Structure formats: C-alpha cells, structure tokens
Amino acid sequence: DAKTTQPPSMDCAEGRAANLPCNHSTISGNEYVYWYRQIHSQGPQYIIHGLKNNETNEMASLIITEDRKSSTLILPHATLRDTAVYYCIATHSGSARQLTFGSGTQLTVLP
Amino acid sequence: EPEVTQTPSHQVTQMGQEVILRCVPISNHLYFYWYRQILGQKVEFLVSFYNNEISEKSEIFDDQFSVERPDGSNFTLKIRSTKLEDSAMYFCASSDMLSGGARVETQYFGPGTRLLVL
Question: Which residue of B3, B26, B43 to mutate against A (max A Cβ within 10 Å)?
Fold first, then answer.
C-alpha cells in the first residue's frame, strides 16, 4: 500500500471548514484513499473513502486531485467534537486487507 | 446503526496469565480483524480472519496469540501468557464483502478493550 504523508497537527476555528491534506504520491491505480479518525483512545471511526472522484457524505467531503497524488478531507463546519487524530490511508481493494495507520493529523477545533 | 461491540472495556491481569478479549462484529459481516494500540503509539494490525481461517497476520501476532470464532456472533482474541508489553488498547473490526466490480470493504471498529498487564 502506498505511503501517505500528513501534517502532524492543525487548528481550526469552530464553525469554519477544516481542510486536512494528505499526500500519497506513489498511489497505484487500484488503491483507494480512506479517511478515519480517532477521538482520544476510542476505536478508529470511518469517515469516507474514494478512488478517483470527489466524494461527499453526511460527515465530510473528499477531494482527490486529478493525478491522485494528494487528497483533502473537508469538514464543512467543524465543531469541538471533531477534535481528533485524522488518518489518511491508501489501500488496495480486496478482501481482508490490513489497514496501515500512520501518525495522522491531530486536528484541534478551537472555540 | 449496527456497530461492533467489545467486552470487557477494561481488563487488568497478571503477567503470565491468559486473557480472552471478546468482540461481536456487525451482523452479516464476513471479515474480522484485530488491531492494537500501545499508549502513545500508532494503531497496529494484528490479524485478519475470514471463513474460519486467518487470512493475514503481522509479525506481532506470534504463537502466544490466537483467534477464534466460537459461534455465529463472537470473535475472540486469546493471549496465552501475557507479557508487560502486551498492555495496550485492542480494537476489533469487521467488514462486509461487496459483490460486483472492485471489491472494497470498509472496516468498522469497535470501542476497544484496554488491557493492562501487571
């Protein structure tokens, strides 16, 4: 699976959009980009995933560049409860693939 | 909304003792996983399980670890003789198998069991 690079930390004002970048320059054509987050020591929570096209769900939007070498997770209106470590993971499709978690980005939403 | 559950939430044990961590995956999911996270460190993959067999395991998953699906709902991780370094959060996850096209399955995680080995 391709290595991903994320900034170690970011701040965001409450109510503003949080834009979390991820670099995955060596991603291959059949690798998906997944985003999870972990609040304190709770279990990782799935947010969104995509392959080529931009994706949106009730939690967030995922913007993937045309060359697929980077992506951005957007939380449109960040709240204090969005303070967490956010992980960007590139993984192949297929069954029972292990997820390789990096250090992620610590997002702190400020009041 | 269906979710993965884990018991116990906390477990304290003496070094050398056996522990069994329990998980109830999301109903109708077919793939099951265990991960662990030592305090302050990354989440690490331990093992994946499908059709009553281990699909993949990491170097961490040595002979002291075993997994089992004893019935139609539970998925367990057994540590035979615990060591101090086994102290960690242990997360269970499960995923479905999608049919047609690219098979991509999202792993959903449980809340974890905090294991402390004294």
Answer: B43
- Residue A8, burial from CB neighbour count under 10 angstroms (0-12, 13-18, 19+): exposed
Query: Is residue B10's pLDDT more than 60?
Result: yes
| Phi, psi dihedral angles at B64 (to 5 degrees) | -80, -10
CA distances to B30, B50, B75 from A39, in Å: 26, 28, 24
Residue type, A87: Y
Residue B56 contacts A, CB cutoff 8 Å: yes
Locate tokens 């269970």: which residue? Answer: B92
pLDDT, averaged per 10 consecutive residues of chain A (111 residues), comes to 93 97 92 94 94 94 96 97 97 76 97 95
A4, exposed or middle or buried, with CB in 10 Å at 0-12, 13-18, 19+? buried
Contact B103 A96 (CB under 8 A): no
Nearest to B75 by CA among B22, B10, B7, B5: B22
Q: Are B111 and B55 in contact (CB under 8 A)?
A: no
Query: What is the four-CA torsion angle of A52, A54, A56, A62, rounded to 10 degrees?
Result: 90
Q: What pLDDT was estimated at residue A64?
A: 96
Task: Decide: residue A58, CB within 10 A, 0-12 exposed, 13-18 middle, 19+ buried.
Answer: exposed
